[in-house]
């Protein structure tokens, strides 16, 4: 129903992502002494794109959903079941700003290490207890991000749960490795002013670096605030010169409130996501970035309840990060027809059953070949509208870790998509290190229609699968 009202508005300049916006709080008086408080934001281009509305009327708990593409008329639907964000506008802005800068720095660090890994041999690889490769980049990113968050937000205010521990690195026979990590961290932190952050007064010593890594010892859980960090997600992709991600999320009282995903090798053209990394490197070399363009790499970020997700290019060469660094909004794809949809899954069939997803793809009418990509770059692909579906069905008994999903999930949700387990329930980030209670697998989709088709297909085929 169209809304006719006389209103009283206060305008506040506001920035979340790339475009300058004006945030307006409007009080709309209605009959019976009640009033609405409307929070809306208007872009420079005059499009109103997000609004929240609360009705303050005695004996009423109704909530409403507004949608509008221009600032003059609203379409209002009753949506009693819809949960609106209760976040104040601007909440977590400082944390988001710092997190994006920290992830930009982490991407810069990773790019340097990956380049040297590819040009050298595998001498910089070290086997973890589970035999997965871990590199200098994992520890260096963890130390760098931990140090930045502690310095800027105060170490007493910062709790971090992260993938790496210091055991291997602290061993007597790891002195060379530790030295390389300390050097990498200091080289990166020396560049902090380029990213709008303060560099340490003097270089960090090995004990400070070990301290920064081991400070990431939060166990997560349902209460309070903690960061979840995957310093290099998709380590296998990283060591192969392929896709990987740096993932940082802020979780408060069990809910993800901020997500920042750095994808240093995300190609400018989505078709290149499916190219073998060697081709991509050749193409990158043939088309060097000009001062106006960037050939790969982005940081995507969002804040819970904002209804928007943003993408910044990585800063190139010796340039400075000027906030928000040419950020552009990202939105999920509008494709609903399975025949036109692209689905992503892990490269490694050990991480997700390719045969089960092939069966699902067939039964819902997906026609394209799966897009197999390492790491949380798959979440980025959905949020950017470059693919429509991400499915992961790990073997029975495997427990998904929160840092492998938190940032990607919130980014897809705020970009307009849907992410649940295969039973249609939200992923639960409140149970510590693992996504406890996850039903069968993870399904992320650009839209609810595709999502429903896939969850139904899972139900229909699960019992006859070997999973
Ligand atoms: N057996 C297994 N089943 C499912 N996921 C696994 C797995 N072993 C490792 N993983 C997770 O899958 C992530 C890689 O994702 P993908 O397969 O999509 O590239 C790994 O992140 P790390 O590389 O950070 O350890 C790890 O957390
Ligand atoms: Mg990971």
UniProtKB/TrEMBL annotation:
Q: Does the keyword Magnesium apply?
A: yes
- Tell me, what's a Pfam family for it? Inositol_P
The entry marks the following residues as binding Mg(2+), namely: 163, 230, 233, 404
UniProt GO molecular function: 3'(2'),5'-bisphosphate nucleotidase activity; metal ion binding
Q: What class of enzyme is it?
A: hydrolase
Alphabetical UniProt keywords: Hydrolase, Magnesium, Metal-binding
- Asked whether the UniProt record includes Ribonucleoprotein among its keywords, one would answer no
Q: Which reaction does it catalyse?
A: 3'-phosphoadenylyl sulfate + H2O = adenosine 5'-phosphosulfate + phosphate; adenosine 3',5'-bisphosphate + H2O = AMP + phosphate
Q: What is its EC number?
A: 3.1.3.7
What's the domain of life for this entry?
Eukaryota
Gene Ontology BP terms: phosphatidylinositol phosphate biosynthetic process; sulfate assimilation
Write down the Gene3D superfamilies for this protein, in alphabetical order.
3.40.190.80, Fructose-1,6-Bisphosphatase, subunit A, domain 1 (3.30.540.10)
Q: Which cofactor does it need?
A: Mg(2+)
Q: Which family does it belong to?
A: Belongs to the inositol monophosphatase superfamily.
Identify this protein by name: 3'(2'),5'-bisphosphate nucleotidase
In its UniProt entry, the species of origin is given as: Populus euphratica (Euphrates poplar)
């Amino acid at each position: 129903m169209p809304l006719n009202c006389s209103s009283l508005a206060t305008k506040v300049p506001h920035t979340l992502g790339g475009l300058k916006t004006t945030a307006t709080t409007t009080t709309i008086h209605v009959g019976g002494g009640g009033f609405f408080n409307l929070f809306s934001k208007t872009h420079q281009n005059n499009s109103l794109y997000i609004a929240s509305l609360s009705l303050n009327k005695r004996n009423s708990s109704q909530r409403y959903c507004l949608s509008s593409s221009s600032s003059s008329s609203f379409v209002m639907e009753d949506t009693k079941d819809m949960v609106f964000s209760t976040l104040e506008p601007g909440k977590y802005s400082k944390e988001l700003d710092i997190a994006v800068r920290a992830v930009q720095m982490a991407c810069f660090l990773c790019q340097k290490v990956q380049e040297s890994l590819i040009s050298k041999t595998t001498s910089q690889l070290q086997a973890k207890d589970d035999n997965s490769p871990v590199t200098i980049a994992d520890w260096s990113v963890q130390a760098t991000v931990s140090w930045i968050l502690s310095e800027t937000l105060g170490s007493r205010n910062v709790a971090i749960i992260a993938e790496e521990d210091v055991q291997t690195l602290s061993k007597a026979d790891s002195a060379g490795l530790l030295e390389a990590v300390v050097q990498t961290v200091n080289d990166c932190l020396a560049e902090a002013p380029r990213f709008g952050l303060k560099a340490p007064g003097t270089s960090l010593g090995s004990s400070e670096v070990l301290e920064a890594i081991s400070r990431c010892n939060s166990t997560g859980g349902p209460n309070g605030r903690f960061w979840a960090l995957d310093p290099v997600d998709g380590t296998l992709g990283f060591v192969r010169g392929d896709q990987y991600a740096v993932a940082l999320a802020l979780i408060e009282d069990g809910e993800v409130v901020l997500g920042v995903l750095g994808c240093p090798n995300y190609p400018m053209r989505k078709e290149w996501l499916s190219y073998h990394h060697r081709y991509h490197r050749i193409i990158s070399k043939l088309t060097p970035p000009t001062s106006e363009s960037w050939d790969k790499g982005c940081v995507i970020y969002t804040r819970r309840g904002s209804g928007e997700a943003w993408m910044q290019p990585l800063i190139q060469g010796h340039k400075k990060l000027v906030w928000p660094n040419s950020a552009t909004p990202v939105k999920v794809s509008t494709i609903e027809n399975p025949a036109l949809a692209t689905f992503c899954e892990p490269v490694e069939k050990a991480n997700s059953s390719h045969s089960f997803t092939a069966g699902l793809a067939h039964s819902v009418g997906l026609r394209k070949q799966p897009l197999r990509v390492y790491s949380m770059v798959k979440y980025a692909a959905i949020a950017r509208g470059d693919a429509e579906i991400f499915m992961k069905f790990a073997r029975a008994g495997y427990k998904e870790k929160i840092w492998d999903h938190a940032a990607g999930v919130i980014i897809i949700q705020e970009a307009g998509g849907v992410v649940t387990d295969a039973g249609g329930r939200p992923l639960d980030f409140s149970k510590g290190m693992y996504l406890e209670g996850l039903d069968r697998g993870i399904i992320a989709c650009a839209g609810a229609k595709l999502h429903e088709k896939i969850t139904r297909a899972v139900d229909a085929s699960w019992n006859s699968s070997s999973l």
